[in-house]
Design brief:
With about 350 residues, this protein is an alpha/beta fold. The protein folds into 3 domains: about 80 residues, MurE/MurF, N-terminal domain (Udp-n-acetylmuramoylalanyl-d-glutamate--2,6- Diaminopimelate Ligase, Chain: A, domain 1, 3-Layer(aba) Sandwich); about 200 residues, UDP N-Acetylglucosamine Acyltransferase, domain 1, CATH 2.160.10; about 30 residues. The chain is built from 4 helices and 38 strands. A hairpin with a 5-residue loop joins strand 19 and strand 20. The radius of gyration is 27 Å and the shape is flat. The mean pLDDT is about 95.
Length: about 350
């Protein structure tokens, strides 16, 4: 893309040469000719060899020979990067080792080596199915979705438009549900539901989304799930949520829209996190809790202000303990009062 095309794409104000070709993006310090960089709002000016820099202020605009001024440089940079580094969408022949059931309808742009597609499954236009992917029976994958190498989609799963499933992810495995019999033996509860993944969802490498026991597990539009995340059966996740690596969500919990789980968060079963709730890293929410607003932290999770107060008090315990010991020693040293 030329710099003028990028400015038009972003709706930004171009300063400098509009005919400079941009082939890729890079960090400001390491960028070279032909690359686009950005200076985030409020950051100090940095020298750069980038052919063009996205900026937000007049001062920064004057500092670089070619610049594009926008209100949010980081967001603008991300949008341009997606365009410049978009996966090749050219239609290619399916790899000869791919095994596609006769009853399946596959309209994907590309199906890679050793892919397997089960009976009565549908894969829409623009999809790209990379090497080693296994897609079960009665799966419905809509348009422009990408399944990276060695990901697995079990039977009866639905995936929407423009989704990305990364390598090693497993969608639709059995949920973890058992009932003890009279002898204490764990009897498996039926795991015959489904998974519904709505549009524009990304699921990271080696993450697992279990199918519903009898109903569905659902991931809402625009939600982004990091690597190594476990989502259990019957979980309902709303739109535009963020779930960071090594978090786990137990069965039948509900995350409403715009919820954020930071790294290593544990959510027990039948929890409800209302819209916009943020759970801080390494926190835990116990069963049947309803959390309605704000930022929560700790084990068990509590409002972040209370968590900080308790944490500060915990740090004072050695001092308090020493003072109590000193008081005890002083009391014991006082001779007992003897009445006449």
């Amino acid at each position: 893309m030329k710099t003028r095309e990028i400015a038009e794409f972003l709706g930004g104000d171009l300063r400098g040469d509009g005919e400079v070709d941009i082939y890729g993006v890079a960090a400001l310090k390491s960028a070279d000719q032909g690359e686009l960089a950005y200076l985030d709002r409020g950051r100090d000016l940095v020298e750069s060899n980038a052919s063009c820099v996205i900026v937000s202020s007049e001062e920064a605009r004057q500092h670089y020979a070619n610049s594009i001024t926008v209100s949010d440089p980081k967001l603008a940079f991300a949008k341009v990067a997606a365009e410049l580094h978009r996966e090749d969408r050219k239609v290619q022949p399916n790899h000869p080792t791919a095994v596609i059931a006769e009853s399946a309808s596959v309209r994907a742009d590309y199906v890679g080596a050793f892919v397997s597609v089960g009976e009565n499954s549908y894969i829409g236009e623009g999809c790209r199915i990379h090497d080693g992917v296994r897609i079960g029976k009665n799966v419905n994958i809509r348009k422009f979705t990408v399944l990276h190498a060695n990901s697995t989609v079990y039977d009866n799963v639905s995936i929407g438009d423009d989704c990305v499933i990364h390598s090693g992810a497993v969608i639709g495995a059995d949920g973890f549900g058992y009932v003890k019999d009279e002898n204490g033996i764990h009897v498996k509860f039926p795991q015959i539901g489904t998974v519904v993944i709505e549009d524009n969802v990304e699921i990271g490498a080696n993450s697992c989304v279990d199918r519903g026991a009898l109903g569905e597990t659902r991931i809402g539009t625009g939600t982004k799930i990091d690597n190594l995340v476990q989502i259990a059966h019957n979980v309902q996740i709303g739109k535009n949520c963020i779930i960071v690596a090594m978090s786990g969500i137990s069965g039948s919990s509900v995350l409403e829209d715009d919820v954020v789980l930071a790294g290593q968060v544990g959510i027990a079963d039948h929890v409800t996190l209302k819209k916009g709730v943020v759970i801080a890293a390494k926190s835990a929410v116990y069963s049947n809790k309803v959390i309605s607003n704000g930022i929560w932290a700790g084990i068990p999770a509590r409002p972040v202000k209370a968590f900080k107060e308790n944490f500060a008090a915990l740090g004072s315990l050695p001092i308090i303990r020493r003072e109590i010991r000193e008081l005890k020693d002083r009391i014991e040293s006082i001779e007992p009062f003897e009445s006449e």
